[in-house]
Fold these 3 entries.
Entry 1:
Amino acid sequence: MTGADDEVYSLLIPLTEDRLIVPRACVAEVVRFSKPQQQPGAQDWMLGSISWNTRELPIISYEGLLGKPVPAATGRTRIVVFVASAGQLKNGYFGVVTQGFPQLVRVNRDVLRLDATDGWPDTAPVLCRVKMINEYPLIPDLEKLELLLARESLQA
């Protein structure tokens, strides 16, 4: 990669102990946190749903998916609305609770390296961890995440 055409605008999404990094094109919007309406019998990571742009938006805790405790909401908590590009969700979107505001970054081969460490369950929707300057964000497997959400909505 050389030049500006080889850069990808991405978002660093803060979690409790980690960050996610995703292409900016995967995200529709970042909204203020509102308490999701819970579904009885749902997994701990499935926080419920909120109304967003006249749609029911399922909300998840990525920390919960990684087998960690679901963090309490604070004044900095936000919901990142992802585009469900794999076609598994009928409303076309889902939300991930964050622990702060996502940060816009430009990514290219010069600043991004694969990091071999893991630390998440085999079933977690994580492709890998990368080293990006002084950060070690996770790259989420958004297709797997969407499939998990679709299965959870069928069971609820």
Entry 2:
Amino acid sequence: MGGPEDFDAFYTATARRVVHHVYALCGDLAEAQDVTQEAYARAWQRWSTVGAYEDPEGWVRVVAWRLAANRWRGLRRWFTARARLGREAPVPEPNPDGVALLAALRRLPDAQRLVVVLHHLHDLPVAEIARSTGMPAGTVKSYLSRGRAALAVLLDEKLDDDEKEDIGVGTHS
């Protein structure tokens, strides 16, 4: 046994048995198929040597079993490490106001959304936004004004005139 044709014949004759063997040992068909394929790939790489063995199928079975065992050891180490870290902190549910704000922001034109996010979420002043985006300061102010007005409508806020002035809706600041 030495050439590619020999390996093809060997694979065709033995692969099903090896998968069944590994499946019986590990109890997971997908895992058995994966490690069996890996074992045959390793046999192919060393076929000039493995093909000369008295029992090349036995070699493939041993390699496949070792691969499966190593995966299980890795999983056990992972679970042990996770147990040492303790339970994961619960993730709070999304804030309905935050969800509504993000949905409204997505509906703004890209340039307005960029300016509004940089100004209100990153606390950048108009001059800094203008410098970092390459926009004139007047354009930044215009986009801020339009973005605030659009958000007010999109969020269906019932603001009185004083509240609108406080957040800049209708102004050009």
Entry 3:
Amino acid sequence: MVGIDIIEVERIEKSIQNANFLAKILTYKEIEYVSQFANKCAHVAGLFCAKEAVMKALEDCKQISFKDIEIAHKNSGKPYVILNGKALEVFKKSGKQNIEISISQTNTVATAICIIS
């Protein structure tokens, strides 16, 4: 199962104006992670795309919250997925065992791809 997403960073810059936006889509750990970067919006856009890509790869994404999917990073910087709630339930029902994620961003666009096997 594959999911991919792309977004213009400018859309995230506008969304961040709403104080509730970050709290709605990112976990506390993800907010901590993006706060370390000068171009925070590009990294938020990357995490947003990653979560969208995971939802698409899970296929049955009804009722999955952005916070049911957490994107964490190894010391090397490689991202990985932590599922909770409805997302974890859907993943377990799929019979699949592996989730891979890749995220890329520039100052203007962010993209992510997720492969579940």
